[in-house]
Amino acid sequence: DTAVSQTPKYLVTQMGNDKSIKCEQNLGHDTMYWYKQDSKKFLKIMFSYNNKELIINETVPNRFSPKSPDKAHLNLHINSLELGDSAVYFCASSHGTSGRAIDTQYFGPGTRLTVL
Amino acid sequence: QKEVEQDPGPLSVPEGAIVSLNCTYSNSAFQYFMWYRQYSRKGPELLMYTYSSGNKEDGRFTAQVDKSSKYISLFIRDSQPSDSATYLCAMKVDNTDKLIFGTGTRLQVFP
User: Fold this and answer.
1) Which of A41, A53, A56, A93 to mutate to test the interface with B (most CBs of B within 10 A)?
2) Which chain B residues are within 8 Å of A90, Cβ to Cβ?
């Protein structure tokens, strides 16, 4: 009965490779997010999707491409990995603010990416 | 300068102490203020959620927002070793899903 799940949990890869991280939520939420947390624990939003539509697209290199096949899934594909991409990537989901005053974001367990 | 500033700590206190965690921010449009707790190697989980100014209490936790000073606080009473975690403040403007996080304060409560 996991709410927000991510795979894989750990990812170790060489510079220049392409990799994907998958996220699934079973909370019935309409909005999903990708966050990056650096080594100093700073958590920054990268993208959000609402019902498969891209809503938030922060200043992220275009090597990062999110894809939402349906509203319960949001995947992150990263091309040509660089050393600076090493971080923990968190997926989150929420109902979205449309019509709601308070909207809680629920986070997955994270994917720890190490680029060598 | 980041939109939200938070002292990274670490903050080390004995069990039973009152803990005060704080964030300052620069964007006066922020309306919603949250505190997330993140245990080591886990995802953040929501602790407290407040709208606009004022206090909100939930058990041993009290969240305080002072919009005039652009300052928010989280107080933990009777702190326990299980409270040892990183505490992240987060905030957002109305009608947006975009959360802006502080850098987090690492708290350690020793027995």
Assistant:
1) A41
2) 43-44
For chain A, the farthest-separated pair of C-alpha atoms sits apart, in whole angstroms, at 45
Task: Using an 8 Å CB-CB cutoff, list residues of chain A that contact chain B.
Answer: 4, 31, 33, 40-45, 48, 50, 55-56, 90, 92, 94, 96-97, 101-110, 112
Interval A40-66: pLDDT, tens: 889 999 999 988 888 888 888 999 999
CATH code (residue B20): 2.60.40.10
Residues of chain B contacting residue A55, judged by C-beta atoms under 8 Å apart: 97
**Annotated domain spans of chain A:** 4-98+106-115
Site of tokens 């050393």: A83
A57/A107 Cα distance (integer angstroms): 18
> Count of domains in chain B?
1
Q: List pLDDT tens digits, range B69-104.
A: 999 999 999 999 999 999 999 999 877 888 999 999
Q: Which domain holds residue B96?
A: 4-106
| Architecture field, domain A4-98+106-115 | Sandwich (2.60)
Residue A99 pLDDT: 54
